[in-house]
Structure formats: C-alpha cells, structure tokens
Amino acid sequence: MLVWKAAAGRWAETLLVAYETLGVVFGGLVTSPLYVYSFIPLKSPTVDDYLGIYSIMFWTLTLIGVVKYATIALRADDDGEGGTFSLYSLLCRSMNITETLSSRPSNPKSSSLPRSIYDDTQNQTSMVKVFKESIVARRLLLFIAMLGMCMLIGDGILTPAISVWSAIDGIRAPFPSVSSSVVKVLSTAVLVILFMVQKFGTSRVSFMFSPIMGAWSLSIMLVGIYSIIRHYPSIFKAVLPHYIFRFFWRNGKEGWLTLGGTVLCITGSEALFADLGHFNRSTIQIAFLFAIYPCLVVTYAGQTAYLINNQNDHNAEFYNFIPSVIYWPMFVVSTLAAIVASQSLISAAFSVIKQAVQLDYFPRVKVVRTSLSKEGEVYSPEVNYILMILSVAVILIFGDGKDMGNAYGVVVSLVMLITTILLTLVMIIIWRTPPVLVALYFSVFFVIEGVYVSAVFNKIAEGGWIPFAISFILAFIMFGWYYGRQRKVTYELTNKITLDGLGVLLSDPSVQRVPGFCFFYTNIQDGLTPVFEHYVKTMKSLHQVTAFTTLRYRLVPKVAPHERILFCKIGQQKGVYGCVIQYGYADLLNLEGDDFVSHVTNSLRAHIQDSSAGRLPSDPAEIQQKLSNLDAAQIQQELSNLDDPAEIQQELSNLEEAISAGIVHVRGKTRFHIGKSCGWFDKIMLAFYEVLHSNCRSALPALGVPLPQCIEVGMLYEA
User: Fold this and answer.
1) Residue 106 lies in a domain
2) From its phi and psi, is residue 144 left (phi > 0), alpha (psi between -120 and 50) or beta?
3) Is pLDDT above 50 for 577?
4) Are residues 394 and 287 in the same domain?
5) What is the largest CA-CA distance in the chain?
6) How many whole angstroms from its chain centre is CA 582?
7) Residue 664: beta bridge partners?
8) Which of 213, 412, 471, 632 could pair with 150 in a Cys bridge, judged by C-beta atoms 3.0 to 4.6 Å apart?
9) pLDDT tens digits, one per residue of 34-93
10) How many domains does the structure of the chain reveal?
C-alpha cells in the first residue's frame, strides 16, 4: 500500500511539474495558431488544398515535434542542459576540444597550473580525428553553433513582435474602423511595458504563466472540436500522407511557396530542447505528448474545417475562427498567452547571451540573477533594451504582418536545420549509432527541413532578410570579440614570463615585498602574463601573498565543486601561487552568491594544509611497506618531497597576515597598438575589437569585487 501511495505521489508531482512547463517551455509553440493561416499564401483554394495543407502541418508536428525533438533531441542533453550550444559543448568535450582560447594553456602537459578531469583523452573515431586535425572543421562547427545562438536571439526579437501583434490585431474584427496604425501603437505599448518589467524577473508573475497557457490550450482545443463537428467532421482523413502528394502535384510552385507559412506551425519547438536545463526530460515529454501535441492537432484541424466551409475566407485572421459568443474572452486570453510566449523567448535570449559572455564569445554585458531559487533566471539590461528597440522597430516597419511572418519562417527553419546537423554529429561521434539509422534520420529530417528552408529563402526580399541582418550583426560582434581575444592571448603566450624569468624579476634588490593579498588576473596558465612584468618594473613591489588567478570557462554546463577553485605553488618563491577558478556555461560567476574572496582564501588554506601531510602515510607500518618497494634514489626523492610542518605553519601565518593587511585585485587593461605594418584585415578587426573592449563591462564587478580594491594596469600590445 505504501509503495502505491509513493508511486502515486511521484506521478502527481511529475504531472504538476509537467503542467508548469506549459507556461515556460511551450509558449511560442502553443500560440502559433494565432498567425499560421495568416501567412499561408492561397489563391482560390479548394477542399483538397485545405486537406493537403492540414496534412502537411499534421506530419510536420508529428515528425519534427514528436519524433525529432520529444524523442531524439531530448536524449542529447549535456549533463541535463539542452539547446544548440549544449550540443556544441557535448561534441567538443567528446572530441577533447574543451577549452576556450582565452583560458587554454599553450602546452597543457607542461603547464604549471592545475588541470581538469575533463582533459582526459577519449577514444577517437575517424570523425573525431577530422575535427581534431582540421582547424577549418572546428571553426565550421563553432560557426554553426554561433549561427544557432544568433537565430535564437533573433527569435527573441521576432516572437514578441509577431505574437503580440497577432493578438492585438483581433480588435479590428469587431471594429473595422480601427486602422493598422492603431494596432501598431497598441502592440508597441504592450511590448514596451513587457520589456520594462523584465528587470523585476519573472518569478513574481510566473505562477500565472501555466494557468494562462493552460486556459489558452484548453479553450482553443474546445473551439477546434466545436469547429470540426460543425463544419467538417471528416477532417482527420487528411492525416493520410497521399493528400500531401496530391497537393504538391496539383499546385506545383504555388504549393511549395505555402511551406513558408506552414513551417510556423512548429514555431517554438526548439524550446522543447533548449529548456531542458529547467525541467527534466519526462515532464517535457508528458506536457508535449499529452497536452500540447493533441491541442495543436485538434486546433489546426478545427481551423481547417472552418476554412473548408468558408472558402472565401482564406485570408482570414485567427479571430474569424472564434465563435462570436466567446470572442472577447478569447481576445483577452490570447493576448495574455502572447505575452507569456514573448516572455519565454526573451528569457531564453538572456540565457544564451549569458552563456556566450561566460565562454568569452561575446563582449561582457551585465548579467544579474532575478531569482534566488531559480538559477537559470537572469536579466541583462543592455540586451533587454536592444531587444525592445528591435522588436518595436519590427512592428513599426513591418506592421502588416506578412513580412514578419516571412522573417519568422527563416528563423524557425534554420534553427531546426542546425539542430538536425548537430544531432547527426552526436549520433556519429557520441552515441555510435549504426550508420543505417544515422542515414535514415539525416535523410528524413534534412530533406524536410531543407525544403522548408528553400521555401522561406524565396521570401528573403519580403522580410526574410530581417533575421539575416540581425544574425550577421551579432555574428560580426562575436567574431570580432573572439578574434581580438585570440590575438591578445597569442601575444601573451609569445611574450610570457617563465618561472626562471619570475625568479630573475623578483631577485632585483629594488623590488620589495609589501603587505597584503593580491589577486593578479591573467588569461594564460602556461607562464605569466607580460602585464605582470610591466607592473613589477613600474611599481617596484610585489604583495606578500600573490595569487595569479585565471578565470577558466569550460565547455561544460557545470563544474564539479571540487574542481571549482584549484591552487598550486609557482616556483620556489614564497607566497606566490597559481589559482584557476573554473566555470561552466550554466554556472554563475558569483560562486553561488557567497563572498568571492572568502571562497578563494579558504581554498588556499586547504591547499596549504593538504600539502603538510606530505606524500607518506601516517602509520609507521604503512611507511615501511611503501619504502620497502623503493630503491635508494626513490626513497631520497620521497623524503625530499615532505614538507616541514614549521614551514607550513609559517606559510599559513603569512597568509592570515596578508589577508588582514588588505585585499587588492590587479588586472591588465591592455590595448593593441595598430602599427603601419598591420594588414588591412587586422586593422579593421582589431580596431573593431578595441571599440567593443572599450565599451564593455569589466569582468571584476561580475565577481562581486568591490571597485575600491581594483587596480588596472595599462599596457600596449604590438599588433
């Protein structure tokens, strides 16, 4: 009996969480009936045409929604995280391409600083060797992942615009005198309010998301059932695939062009995968398979049944499908649902930008947590206002809706195609799926999504250029930042200070050791940054305890706690340590909200105390047994490795004294000196990088470091 109660409790909890996913995960997907038929170009359609269109939408939802995303993609999680970048992370780690350039040792085997367990080499297939040996292949993989990220950000611009506009446009049906300009103004006002409240976070209102989306899903499904019964009860015969072939055979090119509108029926499907880090696989699958999928299948069937019985209404908006008795309640619910759908994509854009910033692929912007209980809920003021301006601009410039639909179709189809390509690589490299199954998966989905892409590309001149323009600008910013960081790290590795150089530098009698604890931030681990030499020669001093600190961003979702802060001693200099602080793309920079300095200093104390144990066991019998297996030279080496307890105690005492004297954080504020010898490409890209670098935020405030403790050391790097 207790077992049955426990099982019932688990199922109840799973169903409750699955219900909560309605408002967070499926906002864009479940509001797609608002606009899909508005963007399908039809000229004097017949009953068979409508049956063919519904058959296309049914099989698109089934194959892409159910088979690809709910069944296959959700299995390709990266330690519970989903989305395009998680696939890139998963692939890179499996191929041992796990570091961003700004934190990678030039020679990991000889690096004096700690290494991660993620650096272990795995078995290599022929495909892995291609990526490891070809920089072009690695850059192509990075470009595909970046394009997917840019398209998702573009989704965060277009979804609020098209969802809110489609919902507000319903006011024109009962009031034909209302002009499109009024709809634009009202939509703009709703969007501005939506973006302005982002800084408060979604936690305070998120409890309303699931009820709103639940009410929306249930109401449109009931309206769909009513429409089927009243207008065309035999609509479900269209699930037979031969209606698709008949549709294309009869309409040819015109039928192909309708795909630019039908692809919108799967809008938001990427959220099935992208929000995997917020909800587990089973709850997303339950919510989609038992709520969203049947709701959309029935709703589109009802819309199609209505249009079959009202063939002259083929350019009708969503609200013509709604019975007049419940028109205004549906208007209110659809507007609220559109706002929730917009909120979901805006939050996703914040998360993507946060990942890109942490992995050093995007200029640093302010990212703050808006919820103490929900780790993934973040907000970026700069990103928020840019999204708001672009969303409002889309409505004001392309407010008739057709161009917005064309732009939206490009985003939807390209993101799906990118996911298909990355999932195929996951099947080959990680899952080792049999070639027959890989070929079946790739051929089916690449053909389907490739046909969709070809159809929406035909609309490039009619609004389809919008996401390309947005993605090009974002990609140019990301590449410019990445290229500048790459050149900077290359310069530092070329001009690094070795351990011998450190000894020579500190042996200068004019260099004094001053009281205090210094965090000296560096981008490299194999050696010391040239900024340090510039600092010591200029200041003629070095703090009593100095930790050369590297923020190391890993291509993993989260770094294990025991790997978060790693220390080692550098050379024979007293009080000089190497420190690596590691983060994954789903980690936060503030060490779970606790004090940054105390975490690091506590880890340093533990490192010093651990070294006091030496390398021999404490039990005399165990010591004798271990030494009996060694020759004289090895015994001498073991004894020389033992640390003097008095020295350890003195080291701890010096550390406490340095902390009491004060903490200081030193980082290089380096710039490129672009000389006449630079090529035109370097001049353009490095100048662009300098503009980005001059206007982005410092990394130290993101760690919670008080500004009075920060010192920036300026230095010019020769480009």
Assistant:
1) no
2) alpha
3) yes
4) yes
5) 100
6) 18
7) 518
8) 471
9) 888 877 877 778 899 999 999 999 999 999 999 999 899 988 887 777 778 778 888 887
10) 2
